[in-house]
Each structure stands twice: as C-alpha cells, then as structure tokens.
C-alpha cells in the first residue's frame, strides 16, 4: 500500500475546506465533453445496422427474457455508478462522491418516470 499516498497526492490537491480552485484543464475537459455530447446526439438519430440488429434481437425475446435483460441493463448502470462513487470515496473526494451519487439517483428516477410516462400500448418498445 505504499503507492496509495503517492496516488492521492497526484490525483487530489488538498485545500482548506470551503476553498475551491479550478484547474486550467477543467475548461478543456468541459469543452471536450460538450463536443462528445454533441457528436453523440447527432448520432442518436442515425442508428447503425448493428444497433438496429441488437434492438430487433431484444424485441424478439420472450416477455420474461426481455424483462430479465432490462433488469440486467439497469443493474449494470447502477454498478457503474457504484464503482465511480467508490473510487471517489477511496480518493477521499467526499463532496464529489456525494454529488455524483445524488446526480445518479436523480437521473435514475427521472428515467424511470419518463419511461413510464412515455411508453404506450402502441409503442414499439415494451413498457416496463
């Protein structure tokens, strides 16, 4: 565990509580994130053949298997958030871990509400 203090010193800069400092690379990260999000949003309306095939395969599953696949998908998304929050707690980034966990919870609830309000009996996606 000799490497742990070195990792923390490289990843986390210590400042007194209440003091916030932005690093110059933060602006570049935000710009790159906006570019990736814009590119992904353009691609969202043009699915590839592989994406269409996977969606068709999922739709052809029996109802029980489709529900199991949906449950597994939701479980894996929560698992990914848990890994990131755990890593932030490990690095002692308490406020960031708290904020990320809260944002993930709000996004998960919003997705559940929007899914239940947007699916209809005539929708191509099965309602959950």
Number of domains: 2
**How much beta, percentage-wise?**
under 5%
Number of strands: 0
Question: Separation of termini?
Answer: 46 Å
Shape: elongated
Please summarize the sheet with the most strands: none
Series of H and E elements: HHHHH
- Share of helical residues: over 70%
- pLDDT averaged residue by residue: 79
The assigned structural class equals mainly alpha
Spans of at least 5 consecutive residues with low confidence: none
User: Helix count, per DSSP?
Assistant: 5
Radius of gyration: 20 Å
Write a structural description.
The chain is mainly alpha-helical. It has 2 domains: 39 residues; 67 residues, no CATH class. Helix content is 73%, strand content 0%. The protein has 5 helices and no strands. α4 runs antiparallel to α5. The longest helix has 28 residues. The N and C termini lie far apart (46 Å).
Kindly summarize this structure in a few lines.
The protein is mostly helical and 128 residues long. The chain has helices at residues 3-11, 24-44, 49-59, 63-90, 94-118. The mean pLDDT is 79.
């Amino acid at each position: 565990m000799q490497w742990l203090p070195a990792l923390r010193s490289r990843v986390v800069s210590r400042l007194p509580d209440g003091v916030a400092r932005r690093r110059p690379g933060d602006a570049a990260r935000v710009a790159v994130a906006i570019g990736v999000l814009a590119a992904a949003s353009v691609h969202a309306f043009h699915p590839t053949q592989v994406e269409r095939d996977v969606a068709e395969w999922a739709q052809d599953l029996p109802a029980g298997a489709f529900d199991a696949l949906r449950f597994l998908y939701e479980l894996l998304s929560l698992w990914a958030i848990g890994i990131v929050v755990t890593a932030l707690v490990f690095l002692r980034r308490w406020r960031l871990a708290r904020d990320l966990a809260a944002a993930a919870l709000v996004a998960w609830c919003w997705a559940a509400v929007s899914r239940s309000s947007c699916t209809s009996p005539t929708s191509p996606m099965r309602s959950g």
